[in-house]
Automatic annotation (TrEMBL):
Origin: domain of life: Bacteria
Annotated source species: Anaerosacchariphilus polymeriproducens
Keywords from the named record: ATP-binding, GTP-binding, Nucleotide-binding
Protein's recorded name: RNase adapter RapZ
Annotated ranges, domain RapZ C-terminal: 165-284
NCBIfam families cross-referenced by the UniProt entry: PRK05416.1
Amino acid sequence: MRFVILTGMSGAGKSTALKMLEDVGYFCVDNLPISFIDKFAELSFVPNGEISKVALGIDIRSGQSLGEVEKVLENMTIKGCAFEILFLDAKDEVLVKRYKETRRSHPLAGGERVDKGIREERARLEFLKKKADYIIDTSSLLTRELKVELDKIFVNDQEYKNLFITILSFGFKYGIPSDADLVFDVRFLPNPFYVDELKNKSGNDKEVQDFCMGFDAAKEFLKKLEDMVQFLIPNYILEGKNQLVIGIGCTGGKHRSVTLANELFKRLKEDAEYGIKIEHRDIEKDALRKKI
């Protein structure tokens, strides 16, 4: 029997995650009254029962009885009902944006601002986050990327590190990404923009990649960058960090930064035990500005 308790911040994707787990064979129940969880767990753990995988959604909608969850979990442990806790989180500013886009009100906000409700919810759920076996930050995840992470844990039974890495190329002239944890400047490399046959291409094109990586400085930089990031990752995991954004910037975010970001992504992706994806924030912006 695999018994998963799915919880986390409102707006972080719990409903979507439950549907995904249901699609891969989990018996899913959302917002079950806290007082019923004990009995539900006992029924789920019946030997030779038809149900072998359960996902139970618990969140702030439980109201004041949410405080009883800790005692319920202790009782489950005493009775030998093994469980795992998955906590879905997202940055406050992302949650606010999602609420504004859907025009929903936060369950704890009342008639006040959404961010007040988010702060209150975060405080109430802190004890569950501390107990979580898995924490997934959905701030920058697409729906399909969330599915990949869930499949790793609950379908393929891969060892999961509570860290998701985004490698983000950008152009300094469009501003440093506000969510970047680490920022690296590759403007020291020769700029393909000034090579006529490369000007209108990008770091996703082989010609630009060959040009940028043809310099010893680029190869040495990439080697040192990979070494540093590989050193930092396990230390970030030990610290409890679950989201890491690595920004690599050049002037326009089209040639050098894209090339180096792609190269770093390829190296880190090999045998990675953590989630990782790549984004090119500004790769099309020069073209768009010319049209305007």
